[in-house]
Amino acid sequence: MSSAPRRPVSRDRVIDTAIALADEEGLDAVSMRSVAAELDVVPMALYKHVDGKEDLIAGMIDAIVSRYPAAPAGQDWRDAVRGRVLGARDELGIHPWLRTAIESATRRTPAVLAYMDALAGEFAAGGVSYDLTHYAMHALGHRIWGFSPEAFATSTGDAPPPDPETVATMMRTYPHVVAIAQASAASNPSGACDEDAEFEFTLDLLLESFERLHRSGWTSGSVASPRPGS
């Protein structure tokens, strides 16, 4: 009795396998060797389909970005932009490794450019000038991919709460920082920041500002001024 024929390896299958591996074990687990092992082939067999690890990661990003939801036809441009950005954020919840992959990417692939073009197109469809759209895209920054990087961000995990003496010292030395932390803890019983709420707050704040500038006829030339010493 003959065994079932082996399923052929393709670029799509290599990338899907890498995504599944990253979903389960994280992006660091993805290598040409580990993906080849999952496919039960030698690593060299993958080079027929991807140029190397950088191309593999780019393909993984493309596969997810191409799934970002489009805005419903006829939707207001603010809602359309908001929906696309929050759709990108939803994918981060499904694929936590995606943020690291995007942050470390060095080239804009066709799928990445297509998403950026579609997002810019939502502004344009609402009559927003390309001048303002340019500045708006920069202001959104990484938020178009669903995340907002912060300096000195740390993961608290299951760290024990600070002892009373440390808290007292912090309150004397950094009273406003402590007050913010206390207000956040009071708002969120878990004691952690509500990252989704904070993300949406900033996104809505930016969109409201973009609309106000659009209605006022804003142009970059009207605010540009030389810096001291330039």
Fold blueprint:
Blueprint: H1 11-25, H2 32-39, H3 53-65, H4 77-94, H5 98-104, H6 110-125, H7 130-140, H8 164-173, H9 175-187, H10 195-215
Helix pairs in contact: 1-2, 1-3, 3-6, 4-6, 4-10, 7-10, 8-9
DNA-binding region: 31-50
Keywords: DNA-binding, Transcription, Transcription regulation
Protein name: HTH tetR-type domain-containing protein
Structure commentary:
Among the domains are: 11-50, Arc Repressor Mutant, subunit A; 64-148 and 193-219, Tetracycline Repressor, domain 2. The chain contains ten helices and no strands. It has helices at residues 11-25, 32-39, 53-65, 77-94, 98-104, 110-125, 130-140, 164-173, 175-187, 195-215. Helix 1 packs across helix 3 (53-65). The mean pLDDT is 88.
Terminal CA distance: 81 Å
- Low-confidence stretches at least 5 residues in length (pLDDT < 50)? none
| Gyration radius, rounded | 23 Å
Strand content: under 5%
Give the helices and strands as they follow along the chain.
HHHHHHHHHH
According to CATH, the homologous superfamily of the domain at 64-148 and 193-219 is: Tetracycline Repressor, domain 2
| CATH class division of the domain at 64-148 and 193-219 | Mainly Alpha
General shape: flat
InterPro entries: Homeodomain-like_sf, HTH-type_TetR-like_transc_reg, HTH_TetR, Repressor_TetR_C, Tet_transcr_reg_TetR-rel_C_sf
Protein name: HTH tetR-type domain-containing protein
DNA-binding region: 31-50
Keywords: DNA-binding, Transcription, Transcription regulation
